[in-house]
Design goal:
single chain; about 325 residues; alpha/beta; Rossmann fold; 11 helices; 4 strands; about 5% strand; globular
Length: about 325
């Protein structure tokens, strides 16, 4: 609770939630073991929950592969768009690789199998931390106060706002209306510069869309220089400060991107929370995995701990097999 109140954007909240649930389940198991009735009820509840979870995990690799194929057919062929396909194939292929390595029955292949299995466990835990954090953060950010709304830009289509960007703008308008008062309107900052394949700046096109939808011109502050999310936040914050609009702010993007946008605002020292609009279901897995990878790259402590764990387990297994 202290961590959430201190800063809901911190990834440590996901770690603490997973640990809390782990120990809570352990406490339930200990208490239930003291009573036959409670033990039976607990077993039934765990069975009802565990069967769907087990089936979902068994089908997950296949679903990821199918989604990855669909993603590559509908979107551009890039590494980021292929992440769900690669994740599904790795989940299918890893057990096969482990069986092949273990069958050789020598220290090198045994240690390598232990290292791969430990790496999979570490990756799974890191993903669980990230998933817990994003679910928890989404519920908290929706209620955040704000004196301005910053809309992160996305690519234009023929110089016009595409559906994905329009969804962000609609959410921004709704968020600004919820937080506005007759005497204190909440301004909206459409933020985005002109990309190499765009005829004009994204911020300008977004501002036109907002005015067509009935947003008062004086409530729209255009930021038209940013090329990255970092620049979106920095330039928009400078613009708002120059107009006398103090923090906190609300960042609007897509749901899969909101947690990382909030973490970036935190690293820049900006008092802002982030909310996201829904994304097409087929697009979500690869996009979410891309955000997970990007966040983990910035979490050097967790990566170092995971690397030490994998290295240590590999070395211990090699030493034990060599000694045997």
């Amino acid at each position: 609770m202290w961590s959430l109140r201190s800063d809901p954007r911190a990834l440590r909240n996901g770690v603490l939630v997973v640990l809390a649930v782990h120990y809570l389940l352990g406490l339930v198991a200990v208490v239930a073991s003291r009573s036959r009735v409670l033990e039976t009820v607990t077993d039934v509840v765990f069975l009802v929950i565990g069967i769907p979870v087990a089936l979902g995990l068994a089908l997950l690799p296949l679903l990821l592969v199918l989604d990855g194929v669909l993603m590559l057919r509908r979107e551009s062929r890039s590494l980021g768009n292929a992440l769900s396909l690669l994740a599904g194939l790795s989940m299918i292929g890893l057990p096969v690789v482990l069986v092949v390595l273990i069958r050789h029955e020598n220290p090198v292949t045994g240690a390598l199998a232990a290292g791969l299995l430990t790496a999979q466990v570490c990756a799974g835990l890191l993903f669980l931390f990230f998933a817990a954090h994003t679910v928890l953060y989404a519920r908290i950010a929706r209620r955040a106060d704000a004196r301005a709304v910053i809309v992160l830009g996305a690519g234009l289509v023929a110089g016009q706002v595409p559906p994905l960007l329009a969804a962000r703008l609609r959410l921004a308008v709704a968020a600004a209306e919820e937080r506005s008062a007759p005497a204190a309107r909440v301004p909206i900052v459409p933020s985005g510069g002109e990309g190499p394949d765009e005829p004009r700046a994204e911020g300008v096109a977004m501002a036109e869309w907002l005015r067509r939808e009935g947003v008062a011109p004086e409530d729209v502050l255009v930021e038209d220089r940013a090329r990255t999310t970092r620049e979106n936040l920095r330039f928009s914050t400078r613009l708002l400060h120059s107009r006398g609009v103090p923090e906190p702010y609300l960042i609007v993007t897509n749901d899969y991107h909101a947690p990382r946008a909030a973490m970036l605002a935190r690293s820049l020292g900006i008092d802002a929370q982030a909310v996201g609009c829904p994304t097409a279901l087929y697009y979500w897995p690869s996009a979410y995995l891309r955000e997970f990878v990007a966040v983990m790259v910035e979490q050097r402590v967790l990566l170092v701990l995971s690397g030490l764990t994998v290295t240590g387990m590999t070395g211990l297994v090699w030493l034990s097999l060599t000694a045997a």
